Amino acid sequence: MLAVAAVATAWGGFQAVKGDGRQSILYEAANDAQLQAMLVRRFSPEYRTAFDAWLKTAPFTTPSAPPGPGYMPEYHNPQLEQAEHLNEEAAATEEEGTHARETAEKYIGATVLFAMVLFLVAVSQRFRILGVRVGAIAIALVLLGYALYEVATLPRF
User: Fold this and answer.
1) Cα angle vertex 44, ends 25, 85, to 5°?
2) Alpha-carbon gap, residue 120 to 133, rounded angstroms
3) Domain ranges for the chain
């Protein structure tokens, strides 16, 4: 079954590529001036300027001509600039979100330390040996101090 699926996937990809090639040939062979004019009318002003400059390079007969209007220096796409700006904003927002998650994780860590303090104080009362009691409470005090310092230095939401 896997072999049949792999061969069918490869065949489907092969047919898709052949279809793209056929589409290009059919568009090229159409010689439909009315269709071409309609498509050119739909160009944005920025693309139209680049398209006109590209046609002046004789792209159908000059091998060194740019592959399309989008490669011309005259082409300026305002949506790409807007997309770059939005990507920068998204990256900054993602960074803020990551920082907020890290801060929340530190608060959770401090909460675990506070719980350990409660546990050590409660357990220390069960020991009959004074040294063990004092040791458990000393560890609890150190953990409490550290957890309080962490919470005091963390940003507030």
Assistant:
1) 110
2) 9
3) 2-71, 100-153
